[in-house]
Amino acid sequence: MMWRRAISATAGMLVAAVVLVVGHTPVRAQAGVTGDWEIELTTQTGVTTWQARFEQEADQLGGEIDLGDNEVLAVDGTVDGSMLKFVIIVPDLDGDQPINFEGELAGDTITGAEGKFSWYGTGAWVASRQ
User: Fold this and answer.
1) How would you write the pLDDT of the chain (130 residues) with one tens digit per residue?
2) Which fold has domain 35-129?
3) Rounded to two decimals, what is the model's pTM?
4) Backbone angles phi, psi at 104, to 5 degrees
């Protein structure tokens, strides 16, 4: 009878220890937009795919977008709830070309608004978290 109480008490302490460890294990959630993304821009000139790394700090959005061909551009933007706006400046011999993006974050997808994307044309974009 005594050994049953000892086993029961030991099992109870083990369960309590597991609950404490699991309950205090930090959970690393992604902060809003922060992370690696693949952007797919669809315009009348076709589909263009870029790799992006966004960094959100409070309502500020930074990071970079890799356009390929060794061209990596800085991101400058803002986040307001699930809505985000950002710009990249594409260097051009005729003058730098700003390309503005607006979109809505829903989980691991950003659905972009229709827009004009400089010489890429007009169209829409979507980004998927990698």
Assistant:
1) 555 555 555 545 544 444 444 444 444 345 699 999 999 999 999 999 999 999 999 999 999 999 998 899 999 999 999 999 999 999 988 899 999 999 999 999 999 999 998 888 999 999 999 9
2) Lipocalin (2.40.128)
3) 0.74
4) -125, 130
